[in-house]
Batch of 2 targets.
Target 1
Amino acid sequence: MPIADPVLREIAKNALLKVKICMKCYARNPPSAVKCRRCGSKRLRWKKMKMSAKK
Ligand SMILES: [Zn+2]
């Protein structure tokens, strides 16, 4: 379902990009997380998503 509003679309895109993934249990964590909320591991990495959508 496409999002018509460009502002909302930008927010949605940023929300998808700004997620930290635990390298141990692969749980999603908020961008402000220092350690995994599930297992407590500090091995978090930014989730990288390639946006192929072109308007
Ligand atoms: Zn974890």
Target 2
Amino acid sequence: MLCQRSCAEELCQGCQRQIQRCQRSDTQWQEALPLFVWGVYGGALKRAIATLKYENQPRLARPLGHWLAQTWLESPQAKIKQQLTVVPIPMYAAKKKQRGYDQAELLAKHFCDFAGLPLQPQGLERIRATEAQFTLSATEREQNLSDAFQLGRGFQRRCPAAVLLLDDVYTTGATARSAAQALQHCGIEVVGLAAIAKPIMKDDSQSDRPKRPMKGA
Ligand SMILES: [Zn+2]
């Protein structure tokens, strides 16, 4: 789906290798909203996510969701909670209708298939269309997103004790914090956010740290 080579799976060996090179697990589990990230938003991984979102290739969610689940299962975070329900951060309904699918929901589905965790795709509802985030400053983003979410239909009758949020790309965290707050207001513990990718920020000390060798690299 990313190149012209034909193959039986969603991605050929070459593209898989290129995406795997973007893998750099980034865990910031001490933050107010703990964060678990699979890779760096750049190169082949950025291309794969863009293709999934904007080029009508929902099948790309399968390998990406599985890889995120694989690293999640190998992490110490996977062992902290027994009862964890996975909730994707939803798009605005009209936007989903236009695209035909919600990529975070698809990623969460494949994540749960692989990790053996329960999925609640309707745990959250985005109640306000938000402006394109990239045009706004950090403060404006927070304002733009406050009260953008409410508890979804899936949790109207029965709430889980603990939730792991899931999204495709983590940027400033404003969206994730807003989504977490909507659940926390209802007494649901949000253990953190798992995301496929996170851009390297200018002020990110992460890039200066020595990189650990990847498994299988
Ligand atoms: Zn390929």
